[in-house]
Design brief:
Elements (H helix, E strand, L loop, with lengths): L9 E6 L3 H10 L5 E6 L11 E4 L1 H9 L13 E6 L5 E6 L11 E4 H11 L5 E2 L4 E7 L2 E6 L4 E4 L1 E4 L6 H6 L6 E13 L13 E6 L2 E7 L16 E9 L14 E3 L1 H5 L7 H8 L6 E8 L7 E2 L3 E3 L14 H26 L4 H44 L3 H17 L5 H4 L3 H16 L10
Helix pairs in contact: 1-3, 1-7, 2-7, 7-8, 8-9
The structure holds flavin-adenine dinucleotide.
Length: about 450
């Protein structure tokens, strides 16, 4: 990337090759007069972490990015929630709704999502082995400094560098993320490894215990496998979570997947029903990856210096709290691209303002749309935590029996799943419609209509 102040070409540096960075690269590369470089610290773009849920909101943004077709996975009919200790089914929800099949929830291999996105990023944009270490606000752009000592200048920097973002740290040095107490272990194993264990394959099931859960789901579309080998190559995702008191935790924690031994995982689930226990014992040694959940407070603004924006996990450090973070990450990049196109066209049509002002205006639009969305998520999490604590306190006041207390907390957790219809603002979000709505409101405001006084 050139270090000279350029004329018309907008120099965009994207940090990170996850869903946020790749989605932004695809959406922005459709704009004229842009020079995009995506810097990724890894030596190769390799996704770890088993499966990922792709729901309506994610399909919608994948469509807009032109990457939906390549993403295929398992569409569960029912999702079972069990008491992990007794094995009892506590709720059974039909996973599929009245939505057309292509928009229904699918569990897919994370590598599939990543390959689909990479295939849509124009050649020559991605630079690997490029770890950003700091950013500096300059008169004509942002200076980026890399670990290898190299530097460059960009007009616009997009931080898609994940939960422990260097870009966020440069903008907001006082913002800190901390280990939440939740450790997650994930793996993919051949489904046939567990197919003789009752009630595990092909069901999608959650086994909820007193301090965590195990989750089982297929991740492949069976129609992709030839008749001859039928479902023998299908993979099963196993994902387990365990919660400890973060104040008592003294270990060094990693937000990305590091190898974990079988013993390290299974020790937390020894009191579970024999079915999940048996399946965990069959995971080949060396297959588990461990993730520690980090989270930090909400950011008031997702932008800074008039030329830097945070996308995806860097903009709302919550570690997969809604199981939809990939969609949020891609929505961020897509909206930002629309905002840049909009302010650029506005500047060209009025022949007013500078390129720098144009970027700053686009970032404000991005912030105006996305910041309230993330505020709502933080509020929801706070409400949910309060409900769980209330349920536990109620159960504790009724009896000191640990089984009774566990049942109370379990019911609160199950209620949070069954309340999924109340979460349409997330899971039925259509980012294309969000943008159209923004434009409609802008038009009305321009024509002098007071939006606060009406029900628009
Ligand atoms: C256990 C778990 C389960 C989840 N389940 C789901 C799910 O079912 N559905 C869903 O949609 N989401 C899920 N999520 C969330 C989802 O994985 C994230 O929200 C999503 O990956 C965020 O994308 P991102 O691009 O913002 O960040 P990331 O995917 O973290 O990508 C960040 C990229 O930036 C690179 N990078 C970091 N620092 C630097 C640097 N200094 N210089 C250069 N490059 C850098 C990293 O190497 C990485 O490639 C889950 C998350 C977890 C932890």
């Amino acid at each position: 990337m050139s270090t000279e102040p350029s004329s018309n070409v907008l120099r965009i540096a994207i940090i990170g090759g996850g869903p946020a960075g790749l989605g932004a690269a695809i959406a922005l590369s459709r704009l004229p007069n842009v020079k995009i470089t995506l810097y990724e610290k890894a030596r190769e773009l390799r996704e770890v972490g088993a499966g990922i849920n792709i729901g309506y909101n994610c399909w919608k943004v994948l469509e807009l990015l032109g990457a939906a077709e390549e993403v295929r996975g398992h569409a569960a009919q029912n999702v079972l929630h069990r008491n992990a200790i007794s094995g009892e089914i506590r709720s059974e929800r039909p996973a599929q709704s009245s939505l057309p099949p292509k928009y229904r929830s699918h569990r897919v291999r994370r590598t599939r999502l990543q390959s689909a996105l990479i295939s849509k990023v124009p050649q020559g944009i991605i630079q690997l082995n490029r770890r950003l270490v700091s950013l500096h606000d300059e008169l004509h752009g942002v200076r980026l400094i890399f670990e290898d000592g190299d530097e460059t200048i960009a007009d616009l920097v997009l931080g898609g560098d994940g939960i422990r973002s260097v870009v966020r740290l440069s903008l907001f040095p006082d913002h800190v993320t901390k280990f939440t107490g939740t450790t997650i272990w994930r793996t993919l194993v051949p489904a046939k490894l567990c197919s003789d264990i009752p009630n595990l394959v092909p069901e999608t099931s959650w086994w909820h215990g007193p301090a965590g859960h195990c989750y089982f789901s297929l991740v492949d579309d069976p129609s992709e496998f030839s008749d001859s080998n039928n479902s023998s190559e299908q993979m099963l995702e196993i994902s387990c979570r365990y919660l400890t008191d973060p104040a008592l935790d003294t270990e060094r924690r990693f937000s990305w997947g590091i190898p974990a031994t079988n013993e390290r995982v299974t020790v937390h689930f020894k009191d579970y029903d024999p079915r999940p226990r048996e399946s965990l014992s069959r995971v080949p040694e060396g297959n588990w990856k461990e993730f520690s959940a980090f989270a930090g407070p909400r950011l008031d603004r997702l932008i800074g210096w008039g030329k830097v924006a945070l996308l995806g996990d860097s903009s709302h450090p919550l570690t997969g709290a809604f199981g939809s973070g990939a969609a949020f990450a891609m929505e961020d990049g897509w909206i930002l691209a629309q905002a840049i196109e909009y302010t650029t066209n506005r500047r060209l049509s009025t022949d007013q303002g500078t390129k720098a002002q144009n970027i700053a205006d686009a970032l404000e639009i991005f912030n105006e749309i996305r910041s309230p969305y993330y505020r709502r998520m933080y509020e929801h999490i706070d409400n949910q935590k309060a409900k769980t604590l209330q349920a536990r306190a109620k159960a504790e006041s009724e009896s000191s029996d640990p089984t009774h207390i566990f049942e109370g907390a379990l019911q609160a957790r199950l209620d949070s799943f069954t309340a999924v219809g109340e979460m349409d603002w997330i899971y039925r979000n259509d980012i294309g419609l969000v943008w159209q709505d923004y434009l409609r409101r802008e038009k009305l405001e321009d024509s002098g209509i007071d939006l606060t006084a009406s029900n628009l």
